[in-house]
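Aim 2 progress update. The chain analyzed this quarter is reproduced below.
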Amino acid sequence: MLDGVAGLWCVNAGHARPRIVQAIQDQAAEMDFAPPSRWPSQAFELADKVSKLTPAGLSKVFFTNSGSESVETALQMALAYTGFRAKVRAPG
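Predicted structure tokens:
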């Protein structure tokens, strides 16, 4: 798993690093928000670049919004891969 964003309580890239600050400023000047439904090509380009960094056989890239969403997505994918079906019982 690659945490490319970090969050409120941790920043995995460090604080106030000039190269990162400049990249953020450059991106905000170009496009500060891009809904995936309107500009998917950049997401596809990034997914392609990320997949080239992974070991052979790992060619799928999924983007999520948060750590909890990432965990839930990974769990659902693992369960789907194994064919697991939860059995729901009626109360009582």
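The chain has a mean pLDDT of 79. DSSP finds three helices and no strands in the chain. These observations will guide the mutagenesis experiments scheduled for the next reporting period.
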